[in-house]
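Recall that a protein's primary structure is simply its ordered list of amino acids. Everything else, from secondary elements to tertiary packing, is in principle encoded there. The following example makes that idea concrete.
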Amino acid sequence: MVLLSETSPDNGINTFTGFYQSIKNTWLILLNDYSSLEPWTKNYLLDILMITFSLSTAIILLNVLIALVSNTYKETLKNAHTIWVIELAEIIAEIELNPLLSLQPSLSKELINASWTIVYKASTENVEKWATKHEEMKKNYQNTI
């Protein structure tokens, strides 16, 4: 607005004289509509500012994207061990409680010699902490859906 309100256009009408119209034109420029700048065809400072604006906007948006992805990765990495332990416990429970394994004749000889108990050693404090963390993650996930 400061640059173009006092500069006379090469052709057409100056749309940057009022504050409201200047804000509207700036919003349209953000949406890649440069039609409000068409009256100034020979203003090289305006061309430099347009290029600088486009590049800086692209860099800022890429930085925001990188920050979002980095934050998601940190949260996933923080919860990875808890998720792994819960999945391992579910697999162990499924193996121990599956009645179909004993009905398959091909596996009967191997199952007689195999141990039916799989032990995962962990302190009760860690198990309680993992279970609490897992429940919180489930609630947060359901709230985001």
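Residues 119 and 144 are 35 Å apart (CA to CA). The radius of gyration is 32 Å.
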